[in-house]
Amino acid sequence: MLPNTGKLAGCTVFVTGASRGIGKAIALKAAKDGANIVIAAKTAQAHPKLPGTIYTAAEEIEAVGGKALPCIVDVRDEQQITDAVEKAVEKFGAYTIAKYGMSMCVLGMAEEFKGEIAVNALWPKTAIHTAAMDMLGGSGVESQCRKVDIIADAAYSIFKKPKSFTGNFIIDENILKEEGIKNFDIYAVKPGHPLIPDFFLDEQPDIITKKVEALGATLQLKEERPKPQTKPCSGAVEETFRIVKDSLSDDVVKATQAIYLFELSGEDGGTWFLDLKSKGGNVGYGEPSDQADVVMSMSTDDFVKMFSGKLKPTMAFMSGKLKIKGNMALAIKLEKLMNQMNARL
């Protein structure tokens, strides 16, 4: 596992969900360096089925050398977040590192705070064994999971990097390989046993299933839509834009206020635009009448998949299938429109 270096000594780390599971593992990893930990979680009283509270987590953190500030925080409550930040500043002076839930907001925040605050997203390559996984996966699921330690080590690796390391979507195993970790069996609950791929990463279920069956085990994967054997038929991009155009309204334009340019490669490709600034909105082939705020480059196949909900924009960006230039915050706004399109495409 990744050794502690003491680099986080004196740093203040604001960790949501730190009463148990992945959040607590990250907090403990930082605490071993002597960091100050703000434990921001909902559980103040013991849960009948789930172990740990913000107070028991505080005891564990202080036992390994850190300083703890337990705060009752529901991340859906803005006032509770504000109160916790104010308490952190009052007790520790400020906080320098934060762990929150992740989303496409990473891209916008990384651009907005560039040079001041680094914003990165971290995701597991495989299922991680937590109390939640036990509830969802049932008895025996732990043998197909990795321990929370791998996320803690990956987060620690990110914490050590400079502020210039920002706007990245990171897979735990990948960043640890860069740190020189070669034996990942140390993170497995049951070393040598096939692992469940994380449900939100693009994997190949047939390959995973064969590996599991070879050891006499069974694995239930989420149902996958049949993948087409050929590219979308000619005119798929044009049809997608037609559906998008039919869905436009003054409200959508008012809420978005952006012009998007799509540089599509492959059959039915070329340059297309989506104008969500002009009254009523507009789409078309070629260049828009005004300068684009966001330029997205990808293949026609992936474009159709993305607008129809078969390819997540986050995964498209992470895997290099989607390249974005321009205003990242406006790029994020487009994802909401895509979600509205999914049911119709």
TrEMBL record:
Coiled coil: none annotated. Its main location: mitochondrion. Residues 245-338 form the SCP2 domain. The keyword Glycoprotein does not apply. The keyword Iron-sulfur does not apply. GO terms for cellular component: mitochondrion; peroxisome. It is found in: Mitochondrion; Peroxisome. It comes from the Eukaryota. Keywords: Mitochondrion, NADP, Oxidoreductase, Peroxisome. GO terms for molecular function: oxidoreductase activity. It holds the Pfam family adh_short. Has apparently no steroid dehydrogenase activity. Controls bile acid (BA) and lipid metabolism in response to nutritional cues. Belongs to the short-chain dehydrogenases/reductases (SDR) family. This is Hydroxysteroid dehydrogenase-like protein 2. It comes from Carlito syrichta (Philippine tarsier). The gene is HSDL2.
